[in-house]
Amino acid sequence: MPTQKRNVLACGFAEDDIIAEALGENSPPIRQKVQRHLTTCPDCAQRLEQYKQVHLQLRSLPAPETGLAAARRALDRQLTHLTADARPRLVLSIWDSPIGPLRIGTTDKGVALVEFASPDDPSNSAKRLEEKFTVEHAQGHGGAIAALTRKLEAYLSGSRQALDWVMDDALMRSDFQRQVLRAASEIPYGSLTTYGGLAERIGRPTAVRAVAQALRYNPLPIRIPCHRIVGSNGSLTGYAGNKITLKRDILSVEGIPTVPSRSGFAIAQDQLYVGRQTEQIFCRPSCEASEGDRAGNRIFIASRTRAEAIGYVPCGVCRPDLRPIHHAPVPRLG
Q1: What is the DSSP letter of 280?
Q2: In the predicted model, is pLDDT for residue 62 greater than 60?
Q3: Which segments of 217-317 does DSSP mark as H helices, in order?
Q4: What is the rounded CA–CA span in Å between residue 283 and residue 288?
């Protein structure tokens, strides 16, 4: 029997237990756990009081169902009504990361924003965000933001390959953008595809420009790895507006070699293996077997180790296992 998914708040506590506490339905051990948590989490303490107030209103209403599930549905309906005009809260923190200042925005649902903060950035981020959220500025770097930045710091040092941050998609602009960002999230660590390849992957091969725009306004860069998408000629384009050097630096963390180009930088395609997704095979860059393969079926992979880690096997034609690509180690952030 499948386990029912539990709603987890930004602080890491189960919202179901808060609701059950408001309804008086927690067992003694769970009630003790909730009370201990409330002493250190004012947000959850306030949330509990809100649930209790709604519960008092519900006592006078006829309920066709009984039990916790029915009460939760009734609570959801009432809370939606009571907070229809209230904007969700967004807490902003600035972290001085190895790649420069990052503005991280969190809500009760998860991380909603990662921005490369810059003093000369012409956009007024706070004003824009206040149209959708009640914006608060965090004091210090403790609690939830510290846990987030520890994981990000580990990624930027090369000791972590994935950020398992819980995301809030509130700043994603459309269902199309969500589809594009979801596809970008599926490109493995240490690998790349092109904008055209990503357009093919979502079944929209002619929507290359729209895909590029969706990635340009990715509200969660790094967590959603739009840095792994490059131009058809390998050029690094369109990252966070025009922060190409940042894109190069983040790719270097994943072992992707780059070279100077007319437009700034490009991936060193002759130093990358070519993965063929359908066959789960990786080839040398000049392999005849991969010529003419459609963009949506190929990815560029940093190393043989990475290729094998994601389940690809060596091509039997070009034999990258017997003739590996040798290149100088990619400089890491320092």
Answers
A1: T
A2: no
A3: 244-253, 304-309
A4: 9
For 108, the token pair is 């009760």
For residues 7 and 13, the answer to whether their CB atoms sit within 8 Å is: no
How far apart CA 86 and CA 139 sit, in angstroms, is 23
- pLDDT of 176-194, one tens digit each? 999 999 999 999 999 999 9
Domain residue ranges of the chain, discontinuous segments joined by +:
15-82, 89-156, 175-314
230 vs 71, 201, 212, 246, 247, CA distance in Å? Answer: 50, 14, 10, 13, 10
Q: Which residues pair with 259 in a beta bridge?
A: 266
Of the candidate CATH numbers 2.40.10, 3.10.20, 3.30.160, 1.10.8, the domain formed by 89-156 belongs to 3.30.160
- How, if at all, do strands 258-261 and 264-267 pair? antiparallel
pLDDT of residue 168: 95
Of the options 1.10.10.10, 3.20.20.140, 1.20.950.20, 3.30.70.270, the CATH number for the domain spanning 175-314: 1.10.10.10
The four Cα atoms 313, 318, 319, 320 give a dihedral, to 10 degrees, of -70
**Alpha-carbon distance 112 to 181, whole Å?**
14
User: 135 and 128 in contact (C-beta within 8 Å)?
Assistant: no
SS3 at position 331: coil
Write out the E strands in the chain.
Answer: 89-97, 100-106, 111-116, 134-137, 191-194, 229-230, 258-261, 264-267, 273-276, 281-283, 298-301, 313-314
**Amino acid of residue 159:** S
Catalytic residues: 226
pLDDT tens sequence across 243-284? 889 999 999 999 999 999 887 899 999 999 999 999 999 999
- C-beta of residue 302 within 8 angstroms of C-beta of residue 267: no
State the residue for tokens 């392999």.
287
Which of 85, 106, 84 is CA-nearest to residue 94? 106
Q: Is 79 helix (H, G, I), strand (E, B) or coil?
A: helix
8 Å CB contact between 221 and 114: yes
- Residue 248: φ, ψ to 5°: -60, -45
